[in-house]
Each structure stands twice: as structure tokens, then as C-alpha cells.
Amino acid sequence: MGFSGPGSVVLAPLFLLALLTGLCSGGSDAPRGVAVGFVFDLKAQCDPPCAHGGVCIRNNSCFCSKGYEGESCQYANCSPKCKNGGECLRPGKCRCPPGFGGRFCHKVTCDGGCWNGGECTAVNGEAKCICTSSWTGSTCQHAICPQGCRNGGTCVAPGTCSCPEGWLGGACHTAVCSRSCLNGGKCISPNKCRCRPSFSGPRCEEREKSH
Ligand SMILES: *[C@@H]1O[C@H](CO)[C@@H](O)[C@H](O)[C@H]1NC(C)=O
Description:
- The protein is mainly β.
- Among the domains are: about 80 residues, no CATH class; about 35 residues, Laminin (Ribbon).
- The chain has 1 helix and 20 strands.
- The strands form 10 sheets. It has a two-stranded antiparallel sheet. A two-stranded antiparallel ribbon has the order 3-4. Strands 5-6 form a two-stranded antiparallel ribbon.
């Protein structure tokens, strides 16, 4: 077949388009390589112009390059689609919202990670650490002491308080008197005894005189 003459200019792109679209194998009786019924208007005008290498084949009708779609080929096409609200920037390239990553924004990423067995999970479109029962905090960094830590103690591991000086016990609830309280007195805060009736003194060592 001849590509000479005035028709060649039209036929060359037609041939190319036919190959691209696979129109020829679409059940047409025409010989392969010749597009039939495919109107390609060289004078066609597309407004807005076809973007991303798209070709204007009819008035306001674009033939888009691979990976683009939309009336003027303005949208990139990501396959698989961008997940979790990601935006398709260019073919196969997603821009992910905060908290998501991976090629298709399919991976949840928690800022700072999830510690102590916590799991990063999407909750209502937001990446969040789901902590195990003994831990809390945005990255599961805080241990939980169900018994509480009193008297200025801090929970340093599940169920374990670190107590300030002068206090002991699982919840830092036991005061320490470096010298024990005498005569049934009770250590009620660091180095402070509460004495039984008729006793007094720092260690309850003195018997009060009866009147
Ligand atoms: C395409 O648009 C141009 C300009 O508006 C017009 O002159 C032409 O006739 C149109 N072509 C077709 C096939 O409608």
C-alpha cells in the first residue's frame, strides 16, 4: 500500500493510532494496519488542549497517551488505584495523605512507630497505633499500672512503679522510715511516725505522762 500523496499525512497517524488502540483486531473485516471508521480530523480543535501527550482526533475529543484519562487527558491513571485517599500524580505514582505510604498508599505508617507490640492501623482514614492492653500513648510508649503509682511514683513498665525515695510498694504506697517507729507507731510518710495514744516523739519513743 502506498503512503504517498496527500493522504499520507493522515494515514501515518491513523496507522499509529490503530496500532495503539487495537481497533484493527476489534472484529473489523478491513486488512490489518488500516483503520476504518476511525475519524481522525487533522483540523480538529480541542479546548482545553489535550494534556500529557494526548492527540486531538476530533473536535474536543482527545486520544490520550497510555496512563492518562479524562476529556483532555488531564488525569493520570494509577493502576492499581491509589488507596486511602491517595492522589495519582502520574501513571503508577501516587501521592499519599499523611499516615499512608507505599506505592499505592496501601501501607499505613504511624509517625514515630508503634512500640511495645502496638500495631499501626488506619482508623477513619487516620494512622493510629493500637496498643496492647498494658501500654498507651500515641506510640504506645507509656506503660499502664492498673494499681496506680502514688506519692510521685511513675509507671515505668506494665504494673511496675518507680517510686521516689522514701516510698516503696507496688503502688509506692508504703512509706519508709529509716529508723522504725516504736511502740506500735506507724510510718505514715518518709521518716514520719504516727504514734499510738500516749506515745510521742519522732519515733514514738516517749511515753507521755498520764495526768
Ligand atoms: C471543528 O471546530 C472548528 C472550529 O470551531 C469548525 O470550524 C469545524 O467545522 C469543526 N469540525 C467538525 C468536524 O465539526
